[in-house]
């Protein structure tokens, strides 16, 4: 696997209405992504991805509430009154037909790389691996995100303008397929987290790149930092503390062939592009769908 380590800013999916992330100087580092309203004027509540309580409480391997919280990300930016964190993204769902192979692969990785956690829900992967149903539903059955722009702070008076321009620029997207073809490891700017991700390198890449460019134009108009020069669209599944990219890449290489139907040169899964959303503070908005 010709994996390249890409650095990107930390993603905090639990941001409140006053959460911000500071603008960063454009570079070639890559960002991890976060996580609709019935009308264009009203936002839908953010749908957080916690596992079903029935799954977590009905077996001997049930997850303790305090244990779930152990992996929570540490915020690396201050709360500033009147600022809102903006994130524009393509929602992605892994098809059920791909979950079993992915779950087997994650179980293999969990055995050889210690202290892995599931992105967003921050549950230790080793606990989920004790129950196949939990592993598929919690680690793989939630909504993932392909970022179309940096997560940046905006002021309240910018919200309506940004939403209007996003909906105008991205109003008529065409249906296309997104292929996740490659496993890779990404490291955040602070070198405090390593992420195992699935990257888009062929099918759908051109379309995603065009959408990133449209978002860049809107960011530029509002004096916001644009996306990375060489964006690498991806979704991340699991994380480990610190920069353990060498170890994680080595173990992925060793286990790709053992995973049966998956290999570094074979498509991992494919999904349809269904639209674009954005999150502003703790509210989520529908930008467009197809």
Q: Which class best fits the helix and strand makeup?
A: alpha+beta
Average pLDDT works out at 78
Describe the largest sheet. Answer: 6 strands, antiparallel
Shape: globular
Low-pLDDT segments: 1-42, 44-77
Helix content, binned percent: 25-40%
How large is the count of helical segments?
8
Number of strands: 13
Distance between the termini: 34 Å
Share of residues in strands: 15-25%
What letter string, H or E per element, gives the SSE order?
EEHHEHEHHEEHEEEHEHEEE
Q: Please give the radius of gyration in angstroms.
A: 18 Å
Oligomeric status: single chain
Written description of the protein model:
- Residues 1-53 are annotated as: Disordered.
- One of its GO terms (molecular function) is lyase activity.
- This protein is of the alpha+beta class.
- It is 27% helix and 24% strand.
- The protein has eight helices and 13 strands.
- It has helices at 53-57, 65-68, 96-112, 125-128, 132-140, 159-169, 205-221, 245-256; strands at 6-8, 44-45, 83-92, 116-118, 144-147, 152-155, 177-180, 182-188, 193-199, 234-241, 269-272, 275-280, 283-289.
- The strands form three sheets. Strands 2, 3, 5, 6, 12 and 13 form a six-stranded antiparallel sheet that branches. A five-stranded mixed sheet has the order 1-8-9-10-4, with helices on one face. The protein has a two-stranded antiparallel ribbon with strand order 7-11.
- β12 (275-280) and β13 (283-289) form a beta hairpin.
- α3 (96-112) crosses α8 (245-256).
- The longest helix has 17 residues, at 96-112.
- The radius of gyration is 18 Å and the shape is globular.
């Amino acid at each position: 696997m010709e994996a390249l380590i890409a650095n990107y800013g930390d993603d905090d999916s639990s941001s409140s209405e006053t959460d911000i992330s500071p603008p960063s100087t454009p570079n070639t580092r890559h960002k991890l992504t976060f996580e609709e309203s019935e009308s264009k004027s009203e936002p839908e509540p953010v749908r957080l991805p916690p596992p079903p309580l029935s799954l977590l409480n009905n077996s001997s391997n049930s997850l303790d509430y305090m244990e779930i919280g152990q992996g929570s990300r540490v915020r690396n930016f201050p709360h500033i009154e009147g600022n809102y964190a903006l994130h524009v993204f393509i929602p992605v769902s892994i098809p059920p037909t791909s979950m079993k192979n992915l779950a087997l692969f994650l179980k293999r990785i969990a055995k050889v790389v210690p202290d892995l956690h599931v992105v967003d829900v921050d549950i230790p992967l080793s606990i989920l691996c004790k129950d196949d149903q939990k592993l598929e539903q919690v680690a793989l059955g939630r909504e993932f995100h392909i970022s179309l722009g940096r997560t940046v702070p905006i002021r309240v008076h910018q919200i309506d303008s940004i939403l209007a321009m996003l909906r105008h620029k991205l109003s008529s997207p065409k249906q296309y397929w997104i292929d996740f073809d490659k496993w890779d490891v990404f490291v955040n700017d602070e070198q405090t987290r390593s992420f195992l991700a699935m990257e888009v390198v062929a099918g759908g890449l051109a379309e995603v790149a065009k959408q990133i460019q449209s978002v860049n134009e809107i960011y530029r108009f509002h004096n916001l930092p644009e996306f990375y020069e060489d964006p690498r669209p991806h979704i991340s599944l699991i994380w480990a503390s610190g920069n353990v990219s060498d170890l994680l890449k080595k173990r992925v290489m060793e286990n790709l062939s053992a995973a049966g139907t998956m290999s570094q040169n074979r498509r991992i899964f494919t999904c349809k592009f269904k639209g674009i959303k954005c999150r502003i503070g703790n509210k989520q908005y529908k930008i467009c769908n197809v």
